[in-house]
Amino acid sequence: MYVLGIESSCDETAAAIVSDRKEILSNVVYSQIEEHRPYNGVVPEVAARAHLEKIDIVVEKALADANLSLDDIDAVAGTCGPGLIGGVIVGSTFAKSLAFAKKIPFIAVNHIEAHALSVRLTEEVEFPYLLILASGGHCQICVVHDVDNFQVLGRTLDDSVGESFDKVSKLLGFGYPGGPIIEKLYHEGDSDKFSLPRPMCSKGNCDFSFSGLKTAVLNASQKCNSLQDRKDLAASFQKTVSEIMSFKMKQALDFCSNQKIKTNAAVISGGVAANLVIRENLKKTCGSVSSFSVPFLVPPVKFCTDNGAMIAWLGIEKFKKNQFNTLDFRPRPRWPLGENFQKEEKAKREGREEREKGEEREKNENHFCG
Ligand code: KG4
Ligand code: ZN
């Protein structure tokens, strides 16, 4: 089975074809970095227009690279949120149109769920697994129980971790995109030079907060007199974020161990998972926890940042569960992790309660009648 995945929720226009045997037949990513660089960040209107300009070219290339035609495709999966709504509308409408024209199923993909499941494309990992999802728009820790069942253990109370990389890079004058720039500066600076706070790390829970850390960097930056000072500050920030992620991973591992949740792996995914400093540190942390004997896994760097392969892959996972969508599925700027599952569960619960109430009523009526 071949699924075409289309991604356009932020600043990458991407398409890929993936098979149910985990073959990645093509993976085309058009990055809008150059369009947004002059503004030091992603401009939604610029992004939407760039998606519109590139989407057909990117999809055509994905088909050509895979040496397939649309006739060979069994379903189209498109990101329908969360994200910048202009881009989401472009990609999801394109995906729906192809599905409609070729009379094949359409699968509405939640972008963060696609990040959350991406590790299963390149690794053999069974549910449940522990996951830190760290991207530009999200930062949360959850146990992934199934394709659509996520137990959220903690989340950021303010900025996402990727956002904090981007903001810190901008305020230090290093520009966009912040994550890879700061990671590079880590190797050029002295990461011990500045002592920065680690918000929420005295609390024994899995929540994050990054805005205080960003303000601390802003305050420290006022005292920087040279380029090297700013590099040292960037390096110190990178080290601090890495320590926070490791601390929170440990909290989550402890939580799982205390609650007897047996996970098959610890995973980090999302754009920030491309950061080798964080990956290495997390690997060490997981290795040092005696109660934890399962592997620490991360998708390859190119599948951490936004890509079409993870969308196609979630399409395959949903296809296998017969989870298809109608073409009137509404694109969503906000779409919490596992929302559909929770809604279904709630409806089931309410249905059950209603039934139970009915049975109870019937019993009482019979009782009074009798
Ligand atoms: O997953 P992603 O590509 O898009 C969203 O879903 O948001 O994540 C983008 C975020 C950006 O904030 C970017 O700065 C960050 O991931 N990022 C990184 C690295 N590469 C991308 N952060 C730290 N280190 C990196 N190497
Ligand atoms: Zn993403």
Could you write a compact summary of the structure shown?
The chain is α/β, with parallel strands linked by helices.
Defining traits:
370 residues, alpha/beta, Nucleotidyltransferase, domain 5, five-stranded mixed β-sheet, 48% helix, 16% strand, binds 5'-O-[(R)-(carboxyoxy)(hydroxy)phosphoryl]adenosine, binds zinc ion
Commentary on this structure:
By secondary structure, the chain is an alpha/beta fold. The protein has helices spanning about 35, 45-65, 85-100, 110-115, 120, 160-170, 180-185, 210-220, 225-260, 275-290, 310-320, 340-370; strands spanning about 1-5, 10-20, 25-30, 75-80, 105-110, 130-135, 140-145, 150-155, 265-270, 295. Strands 3-2-1-4-5 form a five-stranded mixed β-sheet, sandwiched between helices. β1 (about 1-5) and β2 form a beta hairpin. The chain is globular, with a radius of gyration of 23 Å. It binds 5'-O-[(R)-(carboxyoxy)(hydroxy)phosphoryl]adenosine and zinc ion.
Radius of gyration: 23 Å
Q: Numbering strands along the chain, what is their spatial order in the largest sheet?
A: 3-2-1-4-5
Summed over residues and divided by their number, the pLDDT gives a mean of 94
The hetero molecules present are: 5'-O-[(R)-(carboxyoxy)(hydroxy)phosphoryl]adenosine, zinc ion
How is the CATH topology of the largest domain named?
Nucleotidyltransferase, domain 5
Count all strands and give the number: 10
- The coarse silhouette is globular
The total tally of domains equals 2
End-to-end C-alpha gap: 60 Å
CATH class category of the largest domain? Alpha Beta
Number of helices: 12
Which range does the strand content fall in? 15-25%
Largest sheet: 5 strands, mixed
By helix and strand content, what is the structural category?
A: alpha/beta
CATH superfamily of the largest domain: ATPase, nucleotide binding domain
- Stretches with pLDDT under 50, minimum 5 residues: none
What is the annotated CATH architecture of the largest domain? Answer: 2-Layer Sandwich
SSE ordering = EEEHHEHEHHEEEHHHHEHEHH
What oligomeric state do these chains adopt? single chain
Kindly state the percentage of residues in helix.
40-55%
